[in-house]
Prior knowledge:
Elements: H1 2-9, H2 36-94, H3 97-106
Amino acid sequence: xxxxxxxxxxxxxxxxVQPTETEQPAVRRIKKRFSKGEKILFTLFVAFxxxxxxxxxxxxSELNAVNKEVQLxxxxxxxxxxxxxxxxxxxxxxxxxxxxxxxxxQSGLNLNESNVKVVPGR
Length: 122
């Protein structure tokens, strides 16, 4: 028994078997991240996103252009309304009886009651 115990305490190193290149060929498998269908779906999604963004931006720019035209038209309408009110004020000032009578006297016209006809107003 003493001999067997000695064998246990002796340094025993097992042989390490290293694989050689001839035993196993080095085959590297490349894992695909995305399948073909996923790539197609991703491409369609990107194309749809870009297309819809483009249409949205184009519509927004056209809307801004139309709003600008509307504002310019409103400004022109306001200006025309102001001019019309000023002109109607001038017409009412120049169509008074006193002014017409003065112009008639300057032109050499006399008042003849038998030739006066009353015209109903507007």
